[in-house]
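Design job #97: recover the sequence.
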């Protein structure tokens, strides 16, 4: 493939740029804190529900402040985190009730 002409300084889909100026290819400013929501969902999947809940709330605050655009992922992390926490509490109460009933019957 032959090299591009030196006259063409832009990229596909971008306007031509003056010599010496290159487009910023980093993350958009509105996606700076999207990692919080992704980490919240990942922590919920790994059953680290306190971490999932904390990161979910931090991510929702970033969404409210306009620093992130991952509202659905943040809410998913919160749902997973609180769901796992509720399931753990119910399982603990069921085991404790079973232990109390078997101890009282003996």
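Job complete. Output follows.
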């Amino acid at each position: 493939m032959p090299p591009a002409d030196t006259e063409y300084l832009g990229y596909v889909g971008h306007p031509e740029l003056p010599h010496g100026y290159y487009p910023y290819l980093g993350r958009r400013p509105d996606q700076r804190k999207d990692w919080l929501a992704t980490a919240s969902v990942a922590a919920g999947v790994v059953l680290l529900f306190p971490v999932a809940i904390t990161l979910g709330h931090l991510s929702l605050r970033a969404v409210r402040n306009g620093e992130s655009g991952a509202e659905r992922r943040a809410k998913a992390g919160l749902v997973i985190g609180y769901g796992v926490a509720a399931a753990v509490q119910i399982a603990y109460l069921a085991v404790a009730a079973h232990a109390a009933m078997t101890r009282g019957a003996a």
